[in-house]
Amino acid sequence: MIKKLAIVGGTHGNEFTGIYLLKKWQESPEMVARDSFDTEMLMANPQAYGQNKRYIDHDLNRCFSVADLANDSLSSIEQRRAKEINQQLGPKGAPRIDFIIDLHTTTSNMGPTLLITKKGKFYNQLAAYVKMHMPDAMISCDEDDKTNEEHHFLSTVALDSVMVEVGPVNQSVLSHDVFEQSAQMTLLILDFVELYNRDEVPELPETIDAFRYIESIKLPLTADGERAGMVHRNIQNQDFKMIEPGQPIFVTFGGQEICYQGEKSVYGSFINEAAYYDNNLAMSLLEKITLSTR
Ligand SMILES: [Zn+2]
Fold first, then answer.
1. N or C: which end of the chain has fewer CB within 10 A?
2. In the 8-state DSSP scheme, what is residue 156?
3. Ligand 1 geometric centre to CA of 220 (Å)
4. Are 207 and 271 in contact (CB under 8 A)?
């Protein structure tokens, strides 16, 4: 039973969609209220938003492992903000809030994506419910073998959580489509939680297609770590499409194609995500999976 739910926006200060959705819902809380649970809203990183940045010192969405939250020597702006949020919504391990929906956007062409970091029938049914009402929705399972304790995502302060990740939209920009898709997916999640609480989950498809994160891969780099190329045009904007062994995925600035070296077909997400240039990450690689709702 989920009694207390929090919708979080602005975990990344330049992802405006979630920030303005929060403002909208703070003015009209009835839109996100449901009978069987309380809904709270939290603006996660107002300082980064104030400076129009993803973060100031550290990516806030990497600061929530139990070990880091307990480490008092970690005291950057985001590391301290993580501890405040952990007080407010958590503490992680025995949290006040039962379920968190964390709102994100991506510059990649991922469409409306539900990111799930935990395994279980609840999540599979939630994903099926969202997909049933929003056929364009993509379901992506991200390191769902990890325990909540190990996960560094803000949303994992609660025992149960999801991230809503919608794109493409530039950083610090609003897009009508992305705004509405983010709102729709969030409201569907609230509706599902309400039905789940009331033991009224409707008939769902037996299985749904989803993706599971395998690894992140980097842009081509020189020996001294300078960027040596970019994402190939053939996979630009092709999130959740198949990448086959031998297919060009990068091109050097000199025009030489670099091909995917893996042994089996994979799928890409967060392809050429602007925020990932900090770490020279080029994309995530995924495998296709099937989730069962039974
Ligand atoms: Zn984000």
1. C
2. G
3. 24
4. no
Tens of pLDDT, residues 124-146: 999 999 999 999 999 999 999 99
Q: What are the strands, taking DSSP E only, across the chain?
A: 4-9, 38-43, 99-105, 111-116, 138-141, 160-167, 207-218, 229-231, 242-243, 248-252, 257-259, 266-269, 281-292
What is the whole-number distance in angstroms between the Cα of residue 278 and the centre of ligand 1? 13
> Pairing between strand 248-252 and 229-231?
antiparallel
Alpha carbon of 13 to ligand 1 centroid (Å)? 8
**Gyration radius (Cα) of the chain, Å:** 19
Three-state secondary structure string covering 11-37: CCCCCHHHHHHHHHHHHCHHHCCECCE
Q: How far is the CA of 158 from the centre of ligand 1 (A)?
A: 18
**Tokens (6 digits) for 50:** 């104030």
Which tokens hold the place of 140? 């992506």
pTM: predicted TM-score of the whole model, two decimal places: 0.98
For 212-265, what is each residue's pLDDT tens digit? 999 999 999 999 999 999 999 999 999 999 999 999 999 999 999 999 999 999
Secondary structure (3-state) at 178: helix
pLDDT given for residue 293 in this prediction:
98
Question: What is the reported pLDDT for 263?
Answer: 96
Q: How far apart are CA 144 and CA 155, in angstroms?
A: 13
